[in-house]
Amino acid sequence: MLIASILKSNTGKDPVRTVPMEPLQKDRNTDHPTQDDTEIRGYTPHVPGSSGCVTGSGESIISIDHLTKIFREKNRAVTAVNDITLDVQRGEIFGLLGPNGAGKSTLIRILTTLLRPTSGTACVDTYDITKNPEKIRTIIGVCPQNSTLDVELTAYDNLEFYGQLVNVDERVLDARIWQLLKMAELADRAHMKVQTFSGGMRRKLEIVRAFIHHPLILFLDEPTIGLDPEARREVWQQISKLNEEKTTIILTTHYMDEAEKLCNRIAFVDKGRLIALDNLENLKRLIPAGDLIEIGFEKMREEVLSAIRKNTLINSVEVKSDHLHISAKNGSKVLPAIVAIFEKFSIPMTSISIRSPSLEDVFIYLTGKKLDEGGNQEPKPARGGRPS
Amino acid sequence: MIRGAIAIFKRDFKKFLSNPFVVIMTLLMPVMYLVIFGNAMGGTISHIPVGVVQEMPPYNETPLFSNAVVALNHITQKDYPKLLDVTVYTDETAAKQDLSKGLIAAVVVFPSEVSNDHAVRLYVDSSNSIVPALVESAVRGVLAALGANNPVMVTKIYGDIKYLQFFGVGVIMMAIFTSTMFGGGIALIKDRENGIHEGYLVTPVQRTSIIAGIISSGTVRAFIAGFMIFLIDILITGIIIQSVEDFLLVILVIFIACVGVTSLVVSFASRFSAQQEYASVVAFLNLILFMTSGAFYPVIGMPDWLRWITVINPEYYGVDALRSIILRGQGLDVIGIDLIALMVFSGAMIILGIATYRRTLE
After folding, report:
1. Buried b / exposed e across B17-34, counting CB within 10 Å, b at 16+?
2. Which of B93, B138, B192, B217 measures 20 to 30 Å from B147, CA to CA?
3. Does the beta-carbon distance from A113 to B362 stay under 8 Å?
């Protein structure tokens, strides 16, 4: 919360969505001109009308073009997905990050052909989601947010049943099931009913089940929700393993650490809108404040503060009761100089800490709120969006 | 303590009111019971088809015969429509054939003379539990009114059939329906509630395959139930299956009825997402279909508007076909119509089920 307030005070009032897309790109281009041509491609909007989904040859496996989904209920309309345009690259782990109710699951459901978009188009591999849903179903694996396992069947039976639904060759099915059970470390429980499984075991079973037919793309909707840290780590390992098999993985989550740990690129979604899309490093660079240094003291003198403020790398200095909060572009380089100033005025320091901004800080910077908040907020009707 | 009770009361009541559909169905049920059960069970039997024929020779009609025909044709009960629909036959054999095909419920054979030693012969379809007694009393009444003192000789063409046997056949259909509605339908909705269907929907499996799979598993379950009740019927009610062909025919009818009823249940169960709503609709459907199937009480006793329901009621055709085989020993020639009706119904329901099954979550 402290950080949030500092950042807010630094960046002026209400940074919510005041960071438009173009400046982000510019920022990236100027800072790292040689890097990440593909990153920029992530933003390349589809030319409307040039549909037909010829992305098969290119590097992107999913391209979403101005996708909007509005749920109408009686006389109320809720825009769950609001004009989202993005591409997902072949073979990457793509993270959709946002608070509860941000529209992540709706977007996944549209891409997995469970819902039809209100407007806009999306291509999965070479198929259009509205024109060729059957084809898409053969190349995707889905692990939805709410379990769809049959808890009254055994682990083996669940996999066998699903394998038959997705047309896995009967001759290799048995071997494949055992392979997956071993991968999920459930081989010894193959013939036990799923209702006797812990949450983590069920989740792992469901994830490998989605993978039984070697899909091109794997959708994981909140794969670790409600799991304990141990189980989450195991699920993460599994996801990484699957990605090694060249599967593109699309993952939604509202856990920062999960996205940081797993994802090559992360899309921030809030209230149905895409507010940022980039890899972890670049996202962190979006925060102008840079690293955060906290120094504890017992007494403070004004001269010290002014001396510190002279350093050009330092963005802001603030005194909070017995702590000094400093934000600086390159924290680890600035720190020795600050320490030197303290020593020069012989002011004892009680503690020093330095940390880089986390994804959460980035999210707060971009939206003005924490990820865990906003769960119960209604997505506002498209602000500045197209009339729908 | 009271606060807790009030809180629970409020919560339950809120939930009750938040589902107007179920509220309406709960109120509608007793009313429907009154209307349908009352009419189906207590209705006045009328328009019983009866064949009348005079013994030959002589070939010209006796006064007794013509008077009796007119009298029989005009028996009414107060405000109700007439009791018998009389058809005059010229040939006793033809009349009996129609009786054995179930086209008429009784044949009255008049002798050529009015005397004590020439009996009026009455042949009744004894597979029907109530009609024979009504016909018999009508014939006796008419003879007495005409002053004819001929004795009446009653022949029950299918022997003595107890109500238990009459009803037992209907219970086979009931078993099929209940097992489908609780087994197939509820299981389907539970699967949907548990998200198992959402799991199907992201796989390439076709809508047709989903419905076909659900219907076939439901059919087998219903068949097991129907067949078990059939065996129990044999043991408890003492019905006798005359031949292997009859046995096979019974199995065929039970099977086709299972397909029909299962398809019906699946076709609309796939539209419901909540068990409660489904259960109230199915209870309602069960009432209408079972009551109008003729399992309890002959269809002939129902008012006309209710009899229209039997025309589209698969259970009616099932009960009718089973009774024809089990109680009357009739064959394909008689039950063919029932089988065709059942198959048409099943086909329509399967198509409806496939057409209405939602392939997306919307």
Report:
1. eeeeebeebeeeeeebee
2. B93
3. no
